[in-house]
Design brief:
Growth Hormone, Chain: A; mainly alpha; transmembrane; Nodulin-like domain-containing protein; disordered N terminus; 71% helix; transmembrane helix; Nodulin-like; 523 residues
Length: 523
Amino acid sequence: MDQQSAPPQPPPPSGSVSPCRFVKQVLLGRWFMMFASFLIMAGAGATYLFGVYSKVIKSTLGYDQSTLNLLGSFKDLGANVGVLSGLIAEVTPTWFVLLIGSAMNFAGYFMIWLAVTKKISKPSVWQMCMYICMGANSQNFANTGSLVTCVKNFPESRGMLIGLMKGFIGLSGAVFTQLYLAIYGNDAESLILLIGWLPAVISILFVFNIRTMKISRHPNEVKVFYEYLIISVSLALCLMGLTIAQNVPEEFTTLRLKEQAARAGLSRLVVVEEEPPLVSSKPEPEIVEVPGGLKCEDHEKRDACCCTNICNKPKRGEDYSILQALLSVDMLILFVSTFCGLGCSLTAVDNLGQIGESLGYPQRTISTFVSLVSIWNYFGFSYGVQLTLLFIIISELFGLKYYSTLFNCGQLASPLGSYILNVRIVGKLYDREALKQLTRRGMTRSMVHELTCIGKDCYRLSFLILAGVNLFGALVSLILVMRTREYYRTDIYKRFRDEMEANEKEVVMMKTIDDASDKKQSS
């Protein structure tokens, strides 16, 4: 009787949450997912370090510059051809995509390390191309798994988010340089091993934190992004100061660092700084059904929607199918401008080691240049901004439904530009000048193990050609500006704000129903 008359136990106060439940809520929340994505991006920039370890590959395996540039082009091919990762992400969970990327990263760079350290017999050139392509391609799985998921979880702030994430990729080169100098000294062979195992471990640690969640509005969302911006800027400044301090005793360092920074001239910060107006006034495409009578509401029908109505394209900002986007004029313009801009930039970055060698810089100073390129990839206004803008523009023009595939298709022009400019032009011109120098010394190619060019003439004509190609790409980009000027004057983010409000109303309604049910049971 006493038990029946005892009053019911009051519910625990709202502020008293068990530590385990709180930790679980944090680890599985949207914000920790974004933090984990930043860490994965900070480990996904190994492709920027090719200029550091390319010298050891060239000297150990006896390659000429054209062969080394061929390896660099396959690296760029792997780093930019992410269609496979995008298609896999369409039909598999995110954790599976990240695990595949981890395995490919370790396998590719570990095989290169074995070849360079001569723990295995000397591989053929095609085998080395396959290894470096595999290792670099793992970057796309990290991009697809984390970047695409973050964009879907924060669609209204996609510009700031993509700018920050690509900024962390840019900084990763400087981070890896400092780590390998601290752990291994100035041993470029060990750097190859480091970029093989560390990014793989990072992806595995956060493999279950990266997942798509229900969109909800946070009142201080923009403030959080600015706080991450401050953290990333502080990290970049610390890395820059540390990098410069390591080479202060050398008299020519300051001048050369300025020259390399100007040559690198890159960019993440500009995108993040200018995103708030883009977020508030530049808005988001309203997603509607693809015209032509087909309804793509169910996930099971996405393949059928993708292959139909190719000619009957939606308006800008609506959900394009993959073929509709790839065959559009806007995508063609993006392809040409990416070919010119990223192709030239990748060529310069890949040849940075040989540029320093031709001008007589020591290996440690060359590593400093590569590290500064990664840092200015964050602060600059050229190479760094291109991929960031490419990803944002694709999401704004063609929608988010097939974004994991489309943003990987958008960067296919980059390895093509790298191959033509790097291997067929810059590499050939370098080898031609090196052979001229051998002839003047009365030597032939068979008399030297490594074909090396010394002097300013090694890259003079090459960079004049790259400057002309970049100018053409800039003119082509103006066409896209004129075509999309009216579209960007509209509210392209309205649809996602409406979706967030609908989700909030649904949450409030479900909470009201649950409270009513609890009261009914207690009574």
